[in-house]
Write a structure and sequence with these properties.
It comes from Viridibacillus soli. Keywords: Membrane, Transmembrane, Transmembrane helix. The protein has 14 helices and 2 strands. A two-stranded antiparallel sheet has the order 1-2. The two termini are 35 Å apart. The chain has one domain. The protein is 78% helix and 2% strand.
Length: 326
Amino acid sequence: MKEIALGVLASLFFAVTFILNRVMELDGGSWLWSSSLRYFFMLPFLLIIVMYRKGMQALTQEVKKQPGAWLLWSFVGFVLFYAPLTFAAAYGPGWLVSGTWQFTIVAGVLLAPFFIITLGGKTIRQKIPLVSLLISSIILVGIVLIQMPSAKTISTENLMLGILPVIVAAFAYPLGNRRMMDVCDGRLDTFQRVLGMTIASLPAWIILAVIAVITVGLPSTSQVINSLLVGISSGVIATILFFIATDRVRGNQGKLAAVEATQSTEILFVIAGEMIILGIPLPEPLSLFGLTVIIIGMFLHSYYTMLMKKKQTPTPKTLIKSQGIS
C-alpha cells in the first residue's frame, strides 16, 4: 500500500508535465525546448542531492562498468519517453496526451516476458501477471471512456500525431526504468540512478537544443520558467517518488504492475488542473463515468496487492511446517 501511495503522489507531480507542456505550446513554445530544458534543469538539483548524500563515487564506478547500457537504457527511458510526450502536446490537449499515456499501464504488464530472474541458480523468464493485466485493462477502459466525448472534436491527423508518439513513450518509460534497475541491481539508490540516467541522456538533449536554436531560436522567458517548474515537479520530485516505489517492488511483477498503474490517476489531476488553469469545461457524463471506472480499477489493484502480500507473508503455522516441527 505504501508503494501505491507513493505512485499516486508521483502522479500528482507528473500531471504538471501535461498541463504546462500544453500551456507552453499554446504560448508558441517549441517542443524541442520543452523536452530538453526539463533535463537541463533537473541536472543541478540531482547533483546537489547525490553529492550531499556522498553518492557520486559509487555512481561513477557503476557507469564505468557498463557505459553502453547506461547510454542505451537512459535514452530509451528518458529521451524516447519525454521527447514524444512534448511533441504530442503540440497536436492535442493535455487530456488527450495524458489519457493516451495511460497505455503505459498495460505496456508495463506486457513487458514482463522480456525480463529474466535468477532463483536457486536457475534463470527464469518472468510471465505476464494475468490478474494485473485484467485489472490494468479495466483502468484502460475507463481512460477510453474519458476521451470518447472530446475525441470527436479533433481532426484525424491531430488525433494520430497526439496519440502515436505517446504510445512509443508508454512502452519506453517502463522498459528503460526496468532495464536500468536490472543494470544497477540494487547497488545504487534512486537518486543516484535518476542522476546517472539524466547525465547519460544529456547528449541527446544537447542535440535537440542545438536543433531548436537553429530552427526556432532561443526559448522565451515564460517557457524557461515553465520548463523549470516541470523539471522540479515532474523531473525531480515525481520521478524520484515513482522510482522509489518501483524499486521497492521490482522483484514482483504483479506489485510492479500495480505501482505502474497508479499513473492512471494523472489524468484526474490533469483534468482538474486544466479546468483551473486553462478553463476547460467539466467533463461530460460519459467521461465522469470513465473516472469512476479508473478509481474502481485502482482499488482493485490495491486490494489484489494486499492479497498477494498476505499470501507471501509466512504465518507461524507455515513456519512450523517448513521447519519440520509437528
